[in-house]
Design goal:
Elements: H1 3-11, H2 17-35, H3 39-44
Length: 59
């Protein structure tokens, strides 16, 4: 996905009704791209290593 999509999405107000529509379209686009990947690319796709951390306390 291009960076312009996310920049425009971030600039929108949270109350804007089009924000949810754009979010759904973006998720659909990502899922379609993953669905069309070749079998070998799916096998070798590197998954992100996520380490659980404690919540940071803001004082």
């Amino acid at each position: 996905m291009d960076n312009g999509y996310f920049k425009g999405f971030q600039k929108m107000s949270h109350e804007n009704e089009m924000r949810s529509v754009l979010l759904i379209r973006g998720v659909k686009r990502i899922l379609e791209a993953k669905k069309e990947e070749s079998f070998m690319k799916k096998i070798f796709r590197k998954k992100k290593d996520i380490e659980p951390k404690a919540w940071e306390k803001i004082v």
